[in-house]
Design goal:
- This protein has helices at about 25-30, 35-50, 70-85, 125-140, 155, 175-180, 200-205, 250-260, 285-295, 335-350, 355-360, and strands at about 60-65, 90-95, 145, 165, 185-190, 210-215, 220-225, 235, 265-270, 300-305.
- It has about 350 residues and is an alpha/beta fold.
- The chain has one domain (about 35-360): TIM Barrel (Alpha-Beta Barrel), CATH 3.20.20.70.
- The strands form 2 sheets. It has an 8-stranded parallel barrel with strand order 1-2-3-4-5-8-9-10, surrounded by 6 helices. A two-stranded antiparallel sheet has the order 6-7.
- The longest helix is centred in the N-terminal third of the chain and has 18 residues, at about 35-50.
- The protein is globular, with a radius of gyration of 20 Å.
- The structure holds erythose-4-phosphate (E4P) and phosphoenolpyruvate.
- Erythose-4-phosphate binds next to loops.
Length: about 350
């Protein structure tokens, strides 16, 4: 064998390749139960009916900015399930179960990446814990929505998800459009962080088509993934560049741009992020305005998103966990539980009298 005196030229910036259990192995450890399967199927079917305008209720993706404490997360889920049942004649509730955080620069990247929040990055444990949490939420009868950020994660968790989002930072990414074309759920594409709608519309068009790309199969083998295309892409308005885009004019511009692209003009409004200038206290105002647009006759606003937790605001991650507040976000600020309940009950009360007029 020829000896080379050259320095290695591959993987120069890689510290390690650590083994990761396959999707099949983690699913065997935490199998889909019959109850969870029914929740996922019914949740997806309800969302499809809403996006097809066969069900007049808007859907609401509501929950923490990120899950970091499964005990507090399930406490939240139990309260949300009771509320979801109470308003189910007017709103379809999906719990926001976000495990993967896209950061503007750096920061904690979520429960899968670093479940212990101490830079130990136990991704293998994080994936199993995320699956365990999703199973528990679905077993309550509450469907879950998440951001699909890592293109491999859906092979581990996809059977427990009813709605996926592609975030503002990745809507323009070909990898995420390809992945979305194969996801088994409706997919909401956020407008860009600068407020650009075109990238979301292009993403919906791209994801609606078949793609072939590199991925893994359930056995963890590298595979050429060949997708069929996803017909249930829709836009999520989240504001951008410090300006909101939930007002009547912005919603109309989004509807017109989608119609021009020959897409169903389904619009979801994210009450958080740039739509509330990252001030969670403004989310109720955004929601009230959007519900007002629906009551006034808008038929294309088919959903809303709220960042909500048990306790309002957010907090830093502290080394001494005992000093951290139970049920308070470690990423973006959220509205508290009482405000969430009030926002949703008020919206349901305003929608009930007009829902019959939304069809047709
Ligand atoms: O919703 C979450 C955040 O807005 C997103 O992850 C970006 O966060 P960052 O700007 O704090 O990194
Ligand atoms: C990161 C998020 O939103 P956006 O992509 O709109 O910034 C989010 O909803 O957690």
């Amino acid at each position: 064998m020829t000896q080379s005196n050259q320095q290695p030229i591959s993987n120069l910036h890689i510290a390690a390749f650590d083994p990761m259990p396959t999707p099949e192995a983690i699913q065997a450890q935490l199998p889909l139960s019959a109850k969870a399967e029914a929740t996922v199927s019914q949740g997806r079917a309800a969302l499809i009916n809403i996006l097809d305008h066969k069900d007049p209720r808007p859907f609401v993706v509501v929950g923490p900015c990120s899950i970091h404490d499964p005990v507090a997360g399930l406490d939240y889920a139990r309260r949300l399930k009771a509320l979801a049942d109470d308003v189910s004649d007017a709103l379809m509730i999906v719990m926001r179960v976000y495990f993967e955080k896209p950061r503007t620069t750096v920061g904690w990247k979520g429960y899968i990446n670093d479940p212990d929040m101490d830079d130990s990055f136990k991704v293998d444990a994080g994936m199993a814990k995320a699956r365990e949490f999703l199973l528990a939420v679905n077993e309550l009868g509450l469907p879950a929505g998440t951001e699909a950020l890592d293109p491999i994660s859906p092979q581990y968790l996809g059977d427990l998800i009813a709605w996926n989002a592609i975030g503002a930072r990745t809507t323009e990414s070909q990898t995420h459009r390809e992945m979305s074309s194969g996801l088994s759920t409706p997919v909401g594409f956020k407008n860009g962080t600068n407020g650009d709608l075109t990238i979301a519309i292009n993403a919906i068009l791209s994801a609606s088509r078949p793609h072939s790309f590199l991925g893994i199969n359930s056995d963890g083998r590298v595979a050429i993934v060949r997708t069929k295309g996803n017909p249930y892409g829709h836009i999520v308005l989240r504001g951008g560049d410090g300006r909101p885009n939930y007002d009547t004019v912005s919603v109309t511009l989004a509807e017109n741009a989608m119609t021009k692209a020959k897409l169903l003009p389904n619009v979801i409004v994210d009450c958080s992020h740039a739509n509330s200038n990252k001030n969670p206290e403004l989310q109720p105002l955004v929601m009230a305005d959007v519900i007002g647009q629906i009551v006034a006759g808008n038929k294309n606003i088919t959903g809303l998103m709220i960042e909500s937790n048990l306790i309002a605001g957010n907090q830093p991650i502290l080394a001494d966990r005992s000093q951290m507040t139970y049920g308070c976000s470690v990423t973006d600020g959220c509205v508290n539980w009482d405000t969430t309940e009030q926002m949703i009950r008020e919206a349901a009360d305003r929608l009930r009298p007009i829902l019959a007029n939304r069809l047709g």
